[in-house]
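Margin note from the TA: students keep mixing up input and output lines. Inputs are the sequences; the output is the structure of the whole complex. Example:
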Amino acid sequence: MNFHQYYPVDVVNGEGTRCTLFVAGCEHQCRGCYNQSTWSLCSGQLFDQAMEDNVIADLNDTRIKRKGLSLSGGDPLHPANVAAVLKLVQRVKRECEGKNIWLWTGYTLAELSDEQREVVQLIDVLIDGKFEKDLADPSLPWRGSSNQTVHRLTES
Ligand code: SF4
């Protein structure tokens, strides 16, 4: 998997202070997408073991307390990203006690494959659905258009 941006301290992508990773690769081609540079799986740079370790260390850094990890893109549930994202979220759940995970995807919850659902089972908040330009509303919290849904999957 490749990624475009990693913010070790972020307060705009999800509730609370967070670590946020924007991965590369998206097949939805939404009209009006602000992140077209992330569509290619080959764009950005490699999310290697050192980067994965870095994210885990940041989440456990007690000097700046983070509420959790946010995963966006691109699409973290692009079939080519699922294995790497699953490995990362499994580590967060195992090694980062009390941290929640938010994930943005262009797929809807109803259309996810078994592999994608394996990731979602470990997610606390899922924002799903393509960005629909005609339904865009900047006043909506955590989503760009009204067809998208914020699924709070856990109490976290
Ligand atoms: S799902 Fe997101 S990144 Fe992908 S095309 Fe749509 S708006 Fe852009």
